[in-house]
Amino acid sequence: MTESKPILSWLTDMDGVLVREEDPIPGVTETIPSNRALMIAYDSAVIRSAALIDALREREEEALKLRELPSRLVTIPFWYDDPWSKECAKAHGAPDNMEYLAEINQTTVEGVIAAHSGTEWWVTSVGFQPGCYQALPLDPAFSISAPKYPRPRQWTDERTLCLAGKITSFYPVRSPGGYQLLGRTPVDLYDPLQRNEVFRDSPVLPIAGERHQYVPINEADYYAIRQACEDGEYRYDIAEGEYSLDDYEARLAPTEGAA
User: Fold this and answer.
1) Are 124 and 209 contained in the same domain?
2) Domain count, the chain
3) Is the pTM of this model over 0.90?
4) In a domain, 1, yes or no
5) Please, are residues 160 and 137 in contact by the beta-carbon 8 Å criterion?
């Protein structure tokens, strides 16, 4: 089984089917999806655990029949191998993270960038802190992986993208962390001031079940986009759509056969 296989459980959109708005399960108050689990909070005064389990089993059968899933595609400009990440690694006594990734994966920095930006990423969970998320590659052939820092950093710059194992994650604010640093995006994915129209309904942009595509940019692009974000004028590239589970399974089959 490949490391991408667990995504299949979330490509069936269990969260949406189990707690759909038009026909909610009485007593269910919240759901929190993660990489390999779905936490369900419920009011035991409204529904007992046995009745909830029965209701979930009925909907699980329905979820497993889904072949097309609603999933928007968010395109994110990204400055790979940026100077802030280099400075951060150096300040914590770590090697240049991109060079380290290239070395342990037997490729070049350019190869790491091409691989990471060459696949869409499925957001499996959002949490830990507002705007932080984890995402897994939708290309089963994606092979770049990395260990965490042996000792976590004391700080990481905001809007930094990172990698550990094959999981991509994000630092929405300056905070400690231990994932390997890939670079920095000029766009806000968390804005408590909600300056842009995209944050009208929530200060957190990422949602579980959406896809991300990272587009490499250079220094000039970074500063131009950052200025537009600070002015509240940046236009986010978000395309509503669906994702085909059949297509995903077709791409997965060759890698399973080679395992």
Assistant:
1) yes
2) 2
3) no
4) no
5) no
